[in-house]
Write a structure and sequence with these properties.
This protein is α+β, with helices and mostly antiparallel strands. 22% of the residues lie in helices and 20% in strands. The chain has one domain: HIT-like (HIT family, subunit A, 2-Layer Sandwich). The relative contact order is 0.22. The structure holds guanosine-5'-monophosphate and zinc ion.
Amino acid sequence: MEDCIFCKISSGQISSEILYRDDHVFVIRDIAPKAPTHLLVIPLSHVTRVADLETDDSPMIAAMFEAVTAMVLREDVGNTGYRLIINQGVDAGQVVDHLHMHILAGKKLPEMG
Ligand code: 5GP
Ligand code: ZN
């Protein structure tokens, strides 16, 4: 989709270090990390909202969690723990309208409030 930063990164229009890629998703480091490990798991296709997901998207949804498992192993944070976040809409502070999952780890994360 035009003017979508994550579509531009996935197509290579904007360069970014791709840490992981399969047929459905890719992973990059967040440009403004909130923890020592702050990764973004991003579908290759432009999906805006969880509510737009359909049964056909099941392989992509599974791929998001497979990417989480792979990255948690690679970053060696499985034992200390990590947090997965999907921000949806204004109240959650979503700024990029292309579905993505944050992986936060590497420090004691603040309580959810
Ligand atoms: P949201 O609030 O939409 O869930 O989070 C979007 C995240 O994308 C933010 O944490 C922001 O720092 C990150 N981000 C925005 N633009 C870029 C970019 O161009 N490159 C990378 N690596 N991260 C970005
Ligand atoms: Zn997009």
